[in-house]
Amino acid sequence: ANTLVVEGHTDSTPIRVSSWKSNQELSVARAAAVKEYLVSRGIADSRISTKGYGDARPRSSDLSKNRRVEVVVMTGQ
User: How sure is the predictor about 77, in pLDDT bands with cuts at 50, 70 and 90?
Assistant: First the structure.
């Protein structure tokens, strides 16, 4: 069976007032929320790992496009 890596990302705007202390912490929380959803839909917890990248892997100069979660399917594992 394929495994999944859920990757959380944020924009580069520093966090000022939030329950998250940093963009890194927010990206980890985003990935964890998606993993929780996937597990609730029947995907085995053991098949899903999470990574938080914070603002380290921007996709665009449009900040809203950097606030995302990507699900990577790992084949042949």
Answer: low
